[in-house]
Amino acid sequence: MTTTEPAAAAREIAAEAARAYQEALGERLISAYLLGSLSYGGYSAAASDIDLALVLTEIGDGDRSAVESTTAALQERSPLHRKLSVFWASLPALREGRDDGRFPALDRLQLADDGRVLVGSDVRAEIARPAASELLLESAGFAIAVLATDKVTAEFRAPKRLLVDKVWFTKAVLFPVRFLYSGTTSTGRAANNDEAIDWYLGLADAPAASLVRLAREVRGGHPLEPAEPEPELAAGLVPLYRYYIEAEVARLRASGAPEDLVDAFLDWDKRLG
Fold it and tell me: Are β-strands 50-56 and 29-35 bridged in parallel, bridged antiparallel, or unpaired?
């Protein structure tokens, strides 16, 4: 490693990974891109992943195992390598707005807006931008699948891991902030943490402002000592999520989303309350 600057060190890992995927996939890899905060700014050594996107000529039977085994081998090299997160799909699918590998809509949008080529040629102009309705349903589905589980809901009400795990702390606090802000943006632009936080803290009626400020500080390198976040989480985390849920239910109903998805949010709200 030739530098100790966090974002530069992470970019070196990304470039190393891009070369490894190029070797594993050969000529079928059209391009590898840098995504996320390393491409659009705001990288946090404390909380950010190292996001890469791979665009292939087509998806073959062995591609999933090739990508997964290459990723696993890279992640074993160092703690920084373990931050590696990889999205991949074929160019024909991306042209049609489909995911035939591992490439959620929000990450496809980030690729179109902010992807930075590491190897290969730039094909972003050919990528279909997801519709606002697809982004809404995807983010809502993620929230229910990942954040609305009984285990996570219990953690929100009586935090333990949140008091000591700075990555989980920042993600848990800032997920609803980003989701809320994304609902106010024009179609097809992915929100980043910094602008979402600024927007949220500018709202007059938003709950848990001090908790959101603390999450921003922890992303910036502020140490997470249990005595500091414990009262903030107790006072603000559930109100923050119920505020998000109320807004999301209104958006889902206005968009004509499936009723079972709306019901899942209403059930989550009851369990939080």
Answer: antiparallel
Q: Enter the tokens of residue 238.
A: 């559930």
> Which amino acid would we find at residue 68?
E
The predicted structure's pLDDT at residue 108: 93
The structure's pTM equals 0.86
Annotate 67-89 with b (16+ C-beta within 10 A) or e (fewer): beebbeebbeeeebbebbbbbbb
CA angle (10 as vertex; 212, 75 as ends), nearest 5: 100
Residue 92 makes CB contacts below 8 A (sequence gap 6+) with 58
- pLDDT of 2 > 50? The answer is no
Residue 160 Cα distances to 78, 154, 174, 231, 242, angstroms: 27, 10, 18, 12, 20
- Mean pLDDT confidence for 129-135: 89
In tens, the pLDDT along 220-238 reads: 999 999 999 999 999 999 9
Question: Counting Cβ atoms within 10 Å, is residue 91 exposed (0-12), middle (13-18) or buried (19+)?
Answer: middle
Residues forming a β-bridge with 119 = 32
Contacts of 259 (CB under 8 A, 6+ apart): none
What CATH number does the domain located at 6-126 have? 3.30.460.10
**Which pLDDT tens digit goes with each residue over 53-87?**
999 999 998 999 999 999 999 999 999 999 999 99
Four-residue CA torsion sign, 91, 189, 114, 36: negative
Where do the structural domains in the chain lie, given as residue ranges?
6-126, 132-272
* pLDDT tops 60 at residue 250: yes
Q: How many whole angstroms separate alpha carbon 243 and alpha carbon 255? A: 19
